[in-house]
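Subject: sequence -> structure tokens, single chain

Hey, anyone have a minute? Need the predicted structure for the following. Not urgent.
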Amino acid sequence: MSCSLKGLGQRIAATLLPVWIAACGGGSGLPANVPTVEVPAGNNAIAVAVNRGPNGNNVNRLYTSVTICEPDSNVQCQTIDDVLVDSGSTGLRLLASVIRPDLRLNLQLSPQGFPLLNCIQFLDGSFAWGPIAAFDLKLGGKTANALPTQLIGDPAAAALSANCGVGLPLNSVASLGANGVLGVGLFKQDCGANCVANPRNGYYFRCTTVNCRAAQASVASLTQQLSNPVSRFSSDNNGFVFDLPPVDPSGAVGVKGTLVFGIGTQANNQYAPVSRLSTSTTGRITTLLSGQQLTNSFLDTGSNALFFDATSILSCSGNEPIRFYCPPTRVNRSASLIGANGTTVAVNFAVDNALQLFANPTKAALPTLAGTLGDSRGFDWGLPFFYGRRVFLGIENEISPAGTGPFYAF
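Reply:
Had a minute. Here:
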């Protein structure tokens, strides 16, 4: 999920480019005969899956289940399914409507003692807004204690959402296409040092009264900010590995894969001699495509297609989807991904007609889906890039056998 950058835009915030599908149908369950990578042994791995999602009409969306507990409680817990796994954002965001009302909310407070609010804007103009509460997050055998979590669409602050954006508010399962977002990106916090000192950062706001009748811009300490849950683990916390199986160009009903925490910390996450692309301080690499250097490029499991601008590929016309490409026949392309360390990797990809892909309502994994980005300097390597690859992401300033993050390696 990559995003339009808010405030000073010092890092990737998040891009959620939703898919509009003409034909609906199917459910979120997966039959047995889907491309699969088994979850390896160890306490540091969880299952992830591509399916039609909670609405039954999403494609190329990677989901998992998360368990939240009241801090320091292993009894007052709730498991939430269909949470989008997003390498382009940082932090856990859950729809307030899916959280059990009996769970005690430990709201994070501003220095003035009033509830702290979080805003994230996405590239398509949509946004998520809500207060922050602390939960213990359990992912497999790992726990991130007292993790600040955004409560998307919480009624207590919903009337103040204009402070965040004027586009589509992603405040329901119908609009988000998920019950929440698990942001496991390159960075430890969603904003970092800028939000500690600068109240006009675009990410954090505070209620001006206890009952939250108004809000204004606010600072937020590093411990209050939405944080990468992996970096909050007591071990296996220097990065993570996505392992998804290859998918035939014609698509598949779904995919089963795994997300492994840590790099070189256990037998299941050993770093093989693969290409490592270090990123800029904002999490960017360069894509060389058709002689153009696209310096605003990134890898993003939260984007459901490959997004880039190409006038030579016909776009869909008529009704939605308007962001996707619809060439009359398959277009095969090649590009080079270049890291800040100078490492270069060749990547081949294909683009098919989106409307024809969407015509089959049973297929949730579409490796040849692509669309326009609206950024002539960028390439968003969305979820199709991850099919058939074992992709390592190193978290900023953390040391691993692959080097010091932030980096991508595959």
